[in-house]
């Protein structure tokens, strides 16, 4: 139950002002064609910020040889993992394409920037 409490605290923290207000886009006249939006480049992560965000990750992934009691599975080592792999995995959990209830709950509170920062930091570890 503790990881969910931490995840809830992180969600409250992020929702309390970490995100800028969004404004409605200006209306475009119907007579003018609109340009197709440019594909956004993947955000480059900030390892220093990522280091601050991984405190909940260490609870399972930071313990050598850790296994959950039920269901019984090995918790993978994520330190030093490929940055792109970590981005893909966390995004998959957040979007529901990767299935694991605890990881899905953790990833729900993460923005794309959070994911990029976490991946950038974990990729620097040995």
From TrEMBL:
The signal sequence is: 1-20
Recorded hits in Pfam families, A to Z, give:
Cytochrom_C
State the organism named in the record.
Cognatilysobacter xinjiangensis
Location of the Cytochrome c domain: 45-126
Membrane-traversing stretches:
none
Report which superkingdom the organism of origin falls in.
Bacteria
Asked if the record carries the keyword Mitochondrion, the reply is no
Its ancestry begins with: Bacteria, Pseudomonadati, Pseudomonadota, Gammaproteobacteria, Lysobacterales
Task: Provide the alphabetized UniProt keywords.
Answer: Electron transport, Heme, Iron, Metal-binding, Signal, Transport
Please give the InterPro entries that the UniProt record associates with this protein: Cyt_c-like_dom, Cyt_c-like_dom_sf, Cytochrome_c_Oxidase_Subunit
Where in this protein does the record put region Disordered? Answer: 24-46
Give the compositionally biased regions (Low complexity).
24-43
Protein's name in the database: Cytochrome C4
């Amino acid at each position: 139950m503790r990881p969910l409490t931490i995840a809830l605290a992180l969600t409250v923290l992020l929702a309390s002002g970490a995100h800028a207000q969004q404004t409605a886009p200006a209306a475009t006249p119907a007579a003018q064609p609109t340009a197709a939006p440019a594909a956004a480049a993947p955000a480059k992560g900030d390892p220093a910020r990522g280091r601050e965000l991984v405190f909940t990750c260490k609870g399972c992934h930071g313990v050598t040889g850790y296994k959950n009691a039920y269901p019984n599975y090995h918790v993978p080592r994520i330190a030093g993992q490929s940055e792109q792999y970590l981005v893909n995995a966390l995004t998959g959990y957040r979007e529901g394409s990767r299935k694991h209830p605890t990881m899905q709950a953790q990833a729900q509170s993460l923005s794309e920037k959070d994911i990029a920062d976490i991946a950038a930091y974990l990729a620097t570890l040995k």
